[in-house]
Design brief:
With about 250 residues, the chain is mainly alpha-helical. Strand 3 and strand 4 form a beta hairpin.
């Protein structure tokens, strides 16, 4: 297997000169077993859906897990003296403090996953769909955190695709939202209401849940901003609730 990343000039055939690195690599088989289990779980999840948001998130998570698996197998082969797999990546120094920090973030992500799955099991309809999509989003975040952990713990670098900068800074445009005849007025005293859209009823459960999760509310949109664990790039997830129907 050969992964190529032409935007990165350094080709590493992973080999190690210190006993400390070799000792830390002794735990890699257990990391690989955990990832294999996650791959089996997400593959089964993908098979349940013909399309849609949840399947798309699951497929993105599968790609992250497969990349992690390939690089771990490469490291194990190098340590054991087997055939190495050449991957074009930059050199990364292990950072134990960062690894421990990411372990804590992974535990919090798993807690959010458990809460969302519990909510999905108790609800139905749209509430269940929202909970399932939130759980799958958190699982994708967990897979990315896991990549960051492998990088910090073992110095395993991940290929990063560089995206060109836009030619000009785009201007933010807010499209007017036409209120429907049945639209309820904004409820006073709701902390997360966007005052620019008084025709929107922000008391609905979807907006309340988004507010609890720390999302920014703008018009019909709930917007979550976070940074990727691997390269610290900005990730923005947004959901539009204009068609929400309890």
């Amino acid at each position: 297997m050969r992964l190529l990343q032409t935007s990165l000039p350094v080709a590493l055939a992973f080999c190690f000169a210190t006993l400390a690195v070799a000792q830390s690599d002794s735990t890699l088989p257990s990391e690989l077993a955990s990832i294999d289990q996650q791959i089996a779980e997400v593959t089964a999840k993908i098979a349940l859906y013909d399309g849609g948001l949840i399947k798309g998130l699951a497929e993105a998570r599968l790609e992250a897990l497969l990349l992690s698996k390939a690089l771990i197998e490469n490291r194990i082969n190098a340590v054991e003296g087997g055939a190495t797999v050449e991957v074009v990546v930059p050199a990364i120094q292990p950072d134990e403090a960062r690894a421990q920090q990411l372990l804590g973030e992974m535990a919090l992500a798993q807690q959010r996953i458990d809460e969302a799955e519990k909510e999905a099991a108790q609800g139905g309809g749209l509430v269940q769909a929202l909970a399932l999509s939130r759980a799958e989003t958190e699982k994708l975040t967990l897979a990315q955190l896991q990549m960051g952990y492998l990088q910090a713990k073992y110095g395993i670098a991940f290929p990063v695709v560089a995206t060109p900068a836009p030619a000009a800074e785009p201007k933010a445009v807010t499209a007017p939202v036409e209120p429907s005849a049945s639209a309820a007025p904004s409820v006073s005293g709701v902390a997360w209401a966007d005052p620019k859209f008084p025709e929107i009823d922000y008391s609905i459960a979807a907006f309340e849940q988004a507010h609890k999760e720390g999302d920014r509310i703008s018009g019909w949109w709930a917007i979550k901003s976070e940074h990727a664990a691997v390269d610290d790039s900005l990730q923005i997830t947004s959901v539009n609730y204009s068609a929400y129907n309890p």
